């Protein structure tokens, strides 16, 4: 009997010890999440020194400047174009800051980048580097297969692809589908690829392989980039000399005061939908009135158009971003041509790709670029511009007063950036869709 009691006590002691260890690990993980990327990198470098005699335990990073030099010297590439990605943001930031605009173009969408790379190669005989997120692979399929691929025009280029949703890593719902599919998509496109090593000797070998393929096969070659491959590199903070006073989140709070109970809201991809979700939560509004377009960048306005045409008795607000509108700007013509009187298009223009590193968009040139003029040219019935609280109040009152003369576009020029502690939607995409569809059926 005593032995049984002793064994039970030992098992309880072991269980308690394991629980303590798990809690300690959980606390350490929680602490790591609170660290900045720079602090995490410094901590990892310190660990690397401690285990330097065991290279299999060392965590390497690519220096954006050194990798840029490797791309230039090994592959002979000095022309860059593409759409920024969070996994590539450090390399994209280095290119944006250090490569002249004549040799670097942040394009409207990934397909456009392929076209630019094709033209650049034919003009110079040198391949370009095209950077993109793997969610942008859909946009490159047509120009790759009908232009660049060997057997058509045979136009070589190096594709640097951020591998969101990499198997075994946590990510947002749309990336969890896209990630595992990425290798298969590239294989189906007959594009050879490999994962970019996170140490410079390995990166050099990968670039040599890419160079040989581009020289012999005359076609695209892809490098998949995993998370935290690059050392941190940040763009200088955007100096606001335009007198802008509101952040996107502050402007969102202002316009939301003019939403009615039956209004339908479609939020664009990125930080705006996250801010909308938190705003509803703070106010206790519920989330059924909002469709959060977590994927499909540039398609929020098309989704909103489909709803507006099928529910003409409901006011539909499309809350869009400058980068998203630019990506598929042609839909503005469709919106104007179908002329849904219930369509209210609000574009938050901070002149940056805010969700993936703050790289600039062409919409940030406020002296030259105007969403209002573009929308008018497409046939929007009314366009407005607001930059502060009084202007937003006046514009929203006018917007609500327009009943049967749409579509209407309101451009809000706001400061770039977002809260560091901004959360993510806690509702699943499936729940969002079900509740939203139910809300659309209400009379």
SSE order and pairing:
Elements: H1 2-34, H2 37-50, H3 64-75, E1 80-82, H4 89-98, E2 104-106, H5 110-124, E3 129-133, H6 137-148, E4 157-162, H7 173-188, E5 193-195, H8 200-216, E6 220-225, H9 248-256, E7 264-267, H10 271-283, E8 290-292, H11 300-310, E9 316-321, H12 322-327, H13 331-338, E10 343-349, E11 352-353, E12 359-360, H14 371-378, E13 382-386, H15 389-401, E14 408-413, H16 429-441
Parallel strand pairs: 1-2, 1-3, 3-4, 4-6, 5-6, 7-8, 7-9, 9-10, 10-14, 13-14
Antiparallel strand pairs: 11-12
Helix pairs in contact: 3-4, 3-8, 5-6, 9-10, 11-13
Largest sheet: 6 strands, parallel
Looking at CATH, which topology of the largest domain would you report?
A: Rossmann fold
Major sheet strand order: 2-1-3-4-6-5
> Helix/strand/pairing class, anyone?
alpha/beta
CATH top level assignment of the largest domain: Alpha Beta
Number of strands: 14
Low-pLDDT residue intervals, each spanning 5 or more residues: 14-34
Overall number of structural domains: 2
Order of helices and strands: HHHEHEHEHEHEHEHEHEHEHHEEEHEHEH
- What distance separates the N and C termini? 72 Å
Count up the helices. 16
Give the helix proportion (percent range): 40-55%
Rounded to an integer in angstroms, the radius of gyration calculated over CA atoms is 25 Å
